[in-house]
Design a protein that fits this description.
The complex is a heterodimer of chains A (109) and B (112).
Chain A (H helix, E strand, L loop, with lengths): L2 E3 L3 E5 L4 E8 L6 E6 L6 E6 L3 E5 L2 E6 L4 E6 L8 E8 L5 E3 L3 E6 L1
Parallel strand pairs in A: 2-11
Antiparallel strand pairs in A: 1-3, 3-8, 4-5, 4-9, 6-7, 7-8, 9-10, 9-11
Chain B lengths: L3 E4 L2 E4 L5 E7 L5 E7 L6 E6 L6 E2 L6 E3 L9 E3 L8 E8 L7 E2 L3 E5 L1
Parallel strand pairs in B: 2-11
Antiparallel strand pairs in B: 1-3, 3-8, 4-5, 4-9, 5-6, 7-8, 9-10, 9-11
Classes of the chains: A mainly beta (109), B mainly beta (112).
Chain lengths: 109, 112
């Protein structure tokens, strides 16, 4: 079956760095997406990886290892506004997104 | 209009009633999607449309129907609502099926 695993909740301190991991099993693979979702709001796109390696975009970076079925989202210089859920989604061979349940990130001052 | 709009924002509905959730996008995206989001679960795809005039079933299509008469609109209909359809419903669109999806603000539906 198809499956995405990510931690349910993480806590980090303002100004620190946090890494949110995601493992996936899909029928075929057409890329890995990360979205941010603040409470009561819609998911918003953060990053897309289809090749192995690290993609950096400001304070956020995303890494992919296709051979390991593994990705992570790295958030640097954490700010209070980064408190949100982070959703990992893998695109399967039918171009459908398989979503993880999300990681709720709590930032403490 | 900028992006994707959904209506209503929230709704309380009696079981057995018919309900249509509306979704409109102005980005001229070809593909559109309906998801439901329930606590502790990932987003689950209900129906999708890769282009105007075509629709397909997602992971959880039972009890829902969609139509795609034009590029901009993608309504989702619950023919006879049941309490298990209580959820937050998100509409999304993308340029093509393999492209990044952008989400509307969501509709919070409660079926009593």
């Amino acid at each position: 079956g198809q499956n995405i695993d990510q931690p349910t909740e993480m806590t980090a301190t303002e100004g620190a760095i946090v890494q949110i991991n995601c493992t996936y099993q899909t029928s075929g693979f057409n890329g890995l997406f990360w979205y941010q979702q603040h409470a009561g709001e819609a998911p918003t796109f953060l990053s897309y990886n289809v090749l192995d390696g690290l993609e950096e975009k400001g304070r956020f970076s995303s890494f992919l290892s296709r051979s390991k079925g593994y990705s992570y989202l790295l958030l640097k210089e954490l700010q209070m506004k980064d408190s949100a859920s982070y959703l990992c989604a893998a695109m399967d061979s039918n171009y459908q997104l398989i979503w993880g349940a999300g990681t709720k990130l709590i930032i403490k001052p | 209009i900028a992006g994707i709009t959904q209506a209503p924002t929230s709704q309380i509905l009696a079981a057995g009633r018919r309900m249509t959730l509306r979704c409109t996008q102005d980005m001229r995206h070809n593909a559109m999607y309906w998801y439901r989001q329930d606590l502790g679960l990932g987003l689950r795809l209900i129906h999708y449309s890769n282009t105007a005039g075509t629709t397909g079933k997602g992971e959880v299509p039972d009890g829902y129907s969609v139509s795609r008469a034009n590029t901009d609109d993608f309504p989702l209909t619950l023919a006879s609502a049941v309490p298990s359809q209580t959820s937050v419903y998100f509409c999304a669109s993308s340029d093509g099926p393999a492209d990044t999806q952008y989400f509307g603000p969501g509709t919070r539906l409660t079926v009593l």
